Amino acid sequence: MKFSSQIMSFILHFIFLVTFICPIYSLETSNHQVNQTLRFEKGSQKLNKTIKTLLQQINKPAIKTIQSPDGDIIDCVLFHKQPAFDLPVLKGQISLDSQENSEGHDQINNSTLNFQPWHLSGEFCPNGTIPIRRTKEEEIQFGRKSIPFHERLYEVVTYVQGAGYHGAKGTINVWSPRVENNEESSSSKIWVQSLTAKESIEAGWQVCPKRFGDSRPRIFTYWTVDAYKGTGCYNLQCPGFVQTSRKVVPGTVVAPVSVIGGDQYDFNLKFEQDQKNQRWWLEYGAGNENYERVGYWPFSLFKELNHEANLIQFGGEVVDLNPTGDHTSTYMGSGQFAQELAFKAAYIKSMKVAINPYSYIDLLDNENIEATPDCYSIVGGFNKNYESYIFFGGPGRNPKCP
């Protein structure tokens, strides 16, 4: 085979580059890569150290450890050692709160216990301790609810606004919605808020695989005092919410779940402001107004909520992280639209608010919001069986919701 002089010259030039120039470039590149690797390793070591420090702050030393049948680890932590009392303003309240953590608040029927599968282990935390679900390393970055710019938040709610509210309650049915992306979430909940101060306390159930490590609905609490920008967290993942119950554990699985066209399962939630100490108590239960005090958000967390709330919301929420720009196919509730009604759509019933302390009335002049009704919808009303109610939910992405 014959080569032209131009082709041969090119080949010889290429060999020269490979033989003499590339080793120099490779050496420089190699040094650059080594420096990058060292910086990355130092950054990773610093991050790992930060995560371990946070885990030590959250996962307090346990008096007893319980292995839940569903895979959770429950640590029995001395009441006054829980994360909330890392706040200096709460340290002086420990003795008072210990009295409120007495056996009197542990009287609850078995129907509520059935909603907390960790009880199936047959073990309970001893007096003077509270059960806390152990936080895993991979859950640390999902402790807050801050919404990056690329996320879309969809909510369908009914709300009352304006008056001074001192309580809210409702009965929420439980589903196990499909979540498209592990970092997305689907929730059914109640919000108690102060709009002007941008303060909010929330509770209900949520599915978020990245946050909890699976796709099962879990009871949760949340708080913020700056509209989710830099304060607050879920459950006990930062100092704030004070847990008093030895039987109901925020972050644990809620079971069983409702079935479309079949059995429906729900639980009661109540937010009630203590007029003596201006704390917001969270109570949880199942069946016929049976409640267990889970814990409270202390007076010192807030500027306005420690006096009263001016906005109460009931409904569902989906966080959309679909990178393609299409709407997520994450379900809200059962994945059925609100118009499907009983036995198919998600509901919150027996919705009430307290305008006067400890005195609850049905929702009056409430309004519904559904920003994307072709994706998620809501309907509401009042009847004898459900009292004040809403049905809500939807499948997310569909032909009418691309």
UniProtKB/TrEMBL annotation:
Q: Which residues form the signal peptide?
A: 1-26
Q: Neprosin PEP catalytic domain location, by residue?
A: 146-402
Highest taxon of source: Eukaryota
The protein's UniProt keywords, in alphabetical order, are: Signal
In its UniProt entry, what is this protein called? Neprosin PEP catalytic domain-containing protein
